[in-house]
Amino acid sequence: MNIPCFRVLPLLALAAGACASPAWAADPVTDALQKAYVPYRAALFKTNAGQAGESADALKQAQQAWSQVTQLVKSQPTVPYANDALMARTLSGVEEHYARAVQQVAAGQLSQAHDTLEGVRDLLSELRRQNQVIVYSDHMNAYHAQMEHLLDEGPKWLQADDGLPKLAAQAGVLTYLAGLLASEAPASAQSSPEFKELLGAVTRSVDALNAAVAAGDKARIEKAIGQVKAPYSKLFIKFG
User: Coil, helix or strand for 25?
Assistant: First the structure.
């Protein structure tokens, strides 16, 4: 999911609002959604890595976890999702995405399956946004969106005469969002040595990008851009 430059300021305003008054998961449905997000992340990671057998297994687990969410919602609708028509559409929408991804994996279309699964993240994010629920995954998603924008546009900016200011601005956005990954992490993550190590790798990758841009060294910038995604992916699969 790519967010163009003109949407950076609204995104930062949203993130700042989230930082000011975070609404952490405090109801059974949100907790179940977050629990089901774990096997989803695994499926997203495996399809991106092109691992067919592991992708099929991860998708099966994701479908089972989502079935539990569906059963809970039907038996126990709770605030803030009670009577929310969007919840019903989200439940069926995620099921449809999983079913399509299963077919694509079976056909060896791992890249297409990964793109299909990306839609699950968007559905869940929109459900939370409509119901004013903020969880740590939202901060991970904000970083991911801007990271993907850098990966898509950064190489083009690097070749443009006016590209360095754009790269500097994008590096600044990632610096801010990486700070939120640290400050908004739940206590269980903040107390985890593994989390600190993985987050530190993300921070160092952003620092390296900023340093390269400040130096105006195109070779360093290109290398730094190429080293941004891997640290984020490792943090996402474990804590996203």
Answer: coil
| pLDDT interval class at 77 (50, 70, 90) | low
Tokens of 93: 């929408």
At 170 the pLDDT is: 96
Q: 29-57 pLDDT, tens per residue?
A: 899 999 999 999 999 999 988 899 999 99
- Separation between Cα atoms, residue 182 and residue 49, nearest integer Å: 26
User: What phi and psi values does residue 51 have, to the nearest 5 degrees?
Assistant: -100, 100
pLDDT over 90, % of the chain: 72
HSE at residue 11, side-chain half, CA atoms within 13 A, is 22
* Beta strands, E only, 27-155: none
Counting Cβ atoms within 10 Å, is residue 220 exposed (0-12), middle (13-18) or buried (19+)? middle
User: Could you read off the pLDDT of 82-107 as tens digits, one per residue?
Assistant: 767 889 899 999 999 999 999 999 99
Q: Cα–Cα distance between 146 and 151 in angstroms, integer?
A: 9
Query: Which pLDDT score is estimated for 23?
Result: 39
Residue 232 — φ and ψ, nearest 5°?
A: -65, -45
For residue 228 the two structure tokens come to 């941004």
**138 near 18, Cβ under 8 Å?**
yes
Which residue stretches of 131-217 are H helix?
Answer: 136-159, 163-183, 187-190, 193-215
Spell out where 44-135 has E strands. none
| Spatial distance between the Cα atoms of 102 and 152, rounded to a whole number of angstroms | 27
